[in-house]
Structure formats: structure tokens, C-alpha cells
Design goal:
Elements lengths: L8 H8 L3 H9 L6 H14 L5 H5 L6 E8 L3 H17 L5 E8 L4 H12 L7 E4 L8 H9 L3 E5 L11 E3 L2 H15 L4 E7 L5 H17 L3 E8 L4 H14 L3 E6 L2 H13 L7 E5 L3 H8 L5 E4 L2 H18 L7 E3 L3 E3 L14
Parallel strand pairs: 1-2, 1-3, 3-4, 4-5, 5-11, 6-7, 6-8, 8-9, 9-10
Antiparallel strand pairs: 10-12
Helix pairs in contact: 1-2, 1-3, 2-3, 5-13, 8-9, 10-11
Length: about 350
């Protein structure tokens, strides 16, 4: 392809060695497609400067929209993927007047979010919409509602603000993911044993929903599994390790550990290895990075449930742009991203294969 030729779906297909139909499904998010393939297609489209025609029909070049995204900067692997997804969407929206301003808290801090939202309230004329990973399920509703009443659009991502006037939520079905985790733990333990529950923040909606789903299924299907906790580790590895020491001293017969964030997985995996308990105590949680994947391959972590952070970032901005610039209205309150279970058999990392 010369520098003057406009890239097409055929160009992308030839570059990746896949069919045009696969490219079409990836770009339009329809039909069945492997997640790694979908991501490769989106990244190649961005690299080549491909602009799908659908944008021309949904966005007006005469309109402009400044979007603010507020989410934690901690847990780099996860939130970096959200940022990558937003960047991919932003490149697709290039030339259509969409700009993005990212603002961060160190972690899911309600106080820090309130401070930043207060700053945004003082410059209402300088932004149009907000993408928010809410640090509390209800405490920010008054602020969110005030923004919406003032003509701003607010959507939530990763963690919802339940009952607010936000337009929509993009993220994992957290309650269902907790149910899946309980089924995995129950099968590993054959329905018997003592399981300790650990959560990052009791006030974060997503973390609490993961707990609730886990507890519900345990009571429904595994009555001989005894739950202890939950223990809140403030999404800090040091705090998590201290709690683990206390819990094991109180419950030396512990058979399983369930954590609601990657911090719990990493801290617990290290703790189990130090005490020679790897493979004897089952460990189930969420998300991945290179270290977590290695622990899974070694059998220290039994399973991790992924929540597709790339898609959370990508679709939050794309859906928001469609609403702002074309008047699109969501047909449902929540848009759930893909759930994938990472086990020893498929924890091979996200690197692309090279067959040459």
C-alpha cells in the first residue's frame, strides 16, 4: 500500500493474514471472534490510520466534545489497559472534534474523587462529558445528578454509581463474575472447606458485587463450604499480607482464598509460596499481568477472572461520542464486557505468535 492509498478492511486483513469477514466482525463488534484477534485488528487499524465509514454517518465534524475521564492510576496493568482502549477509540475519533482529558486518583478514593469533581464543577464551561470509575456506589450520586441536570453527560466505567442519573455503565457484570468465582472454588474444593474472603474496598460497588455473587452461590450450591471474612485490604499488598498472617493464625485449616482484585492474588500467591502452601490452598481472584500469569502456570493461583479492561476503555468513549454527536440513546442501562477465565491451561500471556 502506497502512502497515498487509503487503508481498507482488505488492507488490514492482508497485514494480519486473516479474512476480511474477521476484520469486519472485529471493527463492528459483532459475531463470534477471538479476543486477541479482535485486539490485533483494532491496533492494526489504528496503526494504518483506518477510519471506518460508519463514523461519517454517526459523527458530525461541526460538533466538538471535550470528555473528562476520572479513574485510579494504581493497579497499572489493569488501568493502563483501560487507557489503551480509550486511546484506540480516540484515534478512531480523530478529526471529529472529540478530545479527552484524563484525571487520576491514586486508588479508589472517595475523598480524592470528590475533590476532583469539585474542581470540575468550578469549570463547567470547559468540558462536556465525564467517564467515571465511581469510588462509591451512592455517595457521588448527588454530584453526578447535578452535572446531568446542568447538561453534562456522565457514564460510569468499571465501578457503577447505582441509582444516579448516569447515562450508562460499561464494565464487567460484577455479580455474575463473583458467582463464577464461587463455582470455580466450589469445584476445586469439592464443595467442602473453609474459604477466606478478601476485598479491596467495601465501599466500591464492583468489589462488593463480586463478594455478594460469591456468597450467594456458596449458600445456594456449596453449603459445606464455610466462609470467613470478608477482610478489607484497601487494595494495598502490604495490608493484604498482614491480614493473611492474621487469618491463617486464626484459621490454620484454611482451604481457599478468594480476592476481589489483582492485589489480593499477588499478595496471597507470594504468601502461600513463602509458607509452602502453594497447591494446598486454592486461590481464585481477578485480572492478570505477567506475574499473575506465571503464578497460574506454576499452579499457585488456580484461576483468575478477566474483565476485558481494553474494551471498557474503548467502548466507554465510543458510546459516549455516539451519544454526544449523534443523539444516540442506550437501549440498556449497562453494557457488560467479556468475561474470560484464566487457568493453568490457557495462561500463556498475551504475546502475539510469530510463525516465521
Amino acid at each position: 500500500m502506497s502512502s497515498q492509498e487509503k487503508p481498507t478492511m482488505k488492507t488490514i486483513a492482508e497485514k494480519l493474514g486473516i479474512s476480511i469477514g474477521t476484520v469486519d466482525r472485529a471493527l463492528k463488534n459483532r459475531g463470534r471472534i477471538n479476543e486477541n484477534t479482535r485486539r490485533q485488528v483494532l491496533e492494526m487499524a489504528d496503526k494504518l490510520g483506518y477510519r471506518p465509514n460508519v463514523l461519517a454517518s454517526t459523527l458530525s465534524r461541526s460538533q466538538k466534545a471535550h470528555v473528562v475521564a476520572l479513574y485510579p492510576a494504581k493497579n497499572e496493568a489493569f488501568f493502563n489497559e483501560i487507557s489503551t482502549g480509550m486511546s484506540a477509540a480516540l484515534r478512531e475519533l480523530a478529526g471529529y472534534g472529540v478530545t479527552l482529558e484524563r484525571m487520576h486518583t491514586v486508588r479508589h478514593s472517595l475523598m480524592s474523587q470528590r475533590q476532583i469533581l469539585s474542581q470540575l464543577a468550578e469549570r463547567m464551561d470547559r468540558w462536556d462529558a465525564l467517564i467515571l470509575a465511581a469510588a462509591h456506589p451512592t455517595a457521588l450520586n448527588e454530584t453526578i445528578n447535578a452535572f446531568v441536570d446542568a447538561g453534562k453527560t456522565v457514564i460510569t466505567i468499571n465501578s457503577d454509581a447505582v441509582g444516579s442519573k448516569r447515562l450508562l455503565f460499561v464494565g464487567q457484570d460484577q455479580f455474575s463474575s463473583g458467582r463464577v468465582a464461587a463455582n470455580i472454588m466450589g469445584e476445586f474444593l469439592h464443595g467442602r472447606g473453609k474459604v477466606a474472603l478478601f476485598t479491596g474496598f467495601r465501599e466500591v460497588w464492583g468489589h462488593e458485587e463480586r463478594l455478594n455473587g460469591f456468597i450467594r452461590v456458596t449458600h445456594e450450591r456449596y453449603p459445606d463450604m464455610l466462609l470467613v471474612g470478608p477482610y478489607e485490604y484497601q487494595d494495598e499488598e502490604f495490608t493484604m499480607r498482614n491480614l493473611l498472617g492474621e487469618v491463617f493464625n486464626a484459621h490454620p485449616d484454611l482451604a481457599g482464598i478468594y480476592g476481589t482484585t489483582s492485589v489480593a492474588l499477588l499478595a496471597a500467591a507470594g504468601f502461600l509460596c513463602e509458607r509452602g502452601l502453594q497447591g494446598r490452598v486454592r486461590l481464585v481472584g481477578f485480572d492478570t499481568d505477567d506475574e499473575i500469569a506465571q503464578y497460574i502456570r506454576e499452579g499457585v493461583i488456580d484461576a483468575s477472572i478477566l474483565q476485558d479492561p481494553f474494551s471498557q476503555g474503548y467502548y466507554s468513549l465510543k458510546l459516549l461520542a455516539r451519544h454526544l454527536m449523534h443523539g444516540w440513546e442506550p437501549q440498556q442501562p449497562s453494557y457488560f464486557t467479556r468475561m474470560e477465565i484464566l487457568l493453568r491451561e490457557n495462561a500463556h500471556g498475551n504475546e502475539r505468535p510469530n510463525f516465521f
